[in-house]
Amino acid sequence: MKSFGLPFLLTFALMLSGCGGPTSPQEVSAAFWQAVIDDDAGEASEFSTLIDEAAFDGFARQWQGVEIDWGRVVIDDSVARVTTRLTGLEGQSEAVETVTYLVRKGDDWLVDYYRTGDALKGGQVWGNLVGQLEKLGEDLKSRWVSQSDDIARELEVLSQELERRAGDVNQEMSVLADEYSERLGEHLEALSDSLRDALKDTPSASPQDQRTLNEAVIRIDDQRARLSEASFQVLAESTEVAAETQLELGTLSDAFAADKAEWLQRVSAMEGDIKTFLGRLNGE
């Protein structure tokens, strides 16, 4: 593993990227970890998937005097990982090798804050739910055993119906798909905004609640961006995401009791629009 001092690497990265700041996974990783060491929540949020800098916790570690070396970089389409070696961590007599995970959002690379934290703790890595929609159906079914949620159940049924109709697309159906993609996008945007507000307005929320909200916002925003395709498949995927999000939000603590009531209404309204859409497809 090739070793550089972090300040040197960050300076080099900034030189490479010019005035626009870090752009490659290596450069963004360097900028992010420099912010962690400096205990700079704003910078750490800028270069990561953290929605609210108030949720920055420095991975619950002391970083003064820590040095970072860099190893292998692997880029696979919209995700990347950078082997990261930390020397001088409190309570660690030897260097700790971990992984910095990144995701691409548009033209930018961002450190996946919670997944990187999981890797550092050596715990189970969650991975990005977005892009794993094939698993959602089975995941939802298993969670219904212990957590009954009528809306999530109905959304799953609606999603399956949308997938079945995908092979019967004609001009009229395409126009309807465009209309309801726009409407569903508005629902998702409003829900995302509400989740962001709740995250910022509740700085005392537990780390797990902060994580749940943060990842829900990312998942919703990613799916909303896909709605520009206005296909039956994307409508089905968006419905799956709404169902998964509804279940995730149900796990939040009582600190979000009032918010959860609002979110339930929002998802219920989304469900109603999807039912109307399917009814119009059936000529009702």
Question: Could you explain the architecture of this structure?
Answer:
By secondary structure, this protein is an alpha+beta fold. It has 2 domains: about 5-120, Nuclear Transport Factor 2, Chain: A (Roll), CATH 3.10.450.50; about 135-280, no CATH class. Helix content is about 55%, strand content about 10%. The protein contains 10 helices and 4 strands, in the order αααββββααααααα. The chain has helices spanning about 5-15, 25-35, 40-45, 115-120, 135-145, 150-165, 170-200, 205-225, 230-250, 255-280, and strands at about 65-75, 80-85, 95-105, 110. It has a 4-stranded antiparallel β-sheet, sandwiched between helices. The longest helix is centred in the middle third of the chain and has 31 residues, at about 170-200. The chain starts with 5 loop residues before the first helix and ends with a helix.
Q: What's the number of extended β-strand segments?
A: 4
Ranges where pLDDT stays below 50 over 5 or more residues in a row are 1-8, 10-18, 123-138, 140-148
Q: How many angstroms separate the termini?
A: 65 Å
Query: What percent of residues are in strands?
Result: 5-15%
Number of helical elements: 10
Order of helices and strands: HHHEEEEHHHHHHH
Radius of gyration: 21 Å
Number of domains: 2
Sheet bearing the most strands, described? Answer: 4 strands, antiparallel
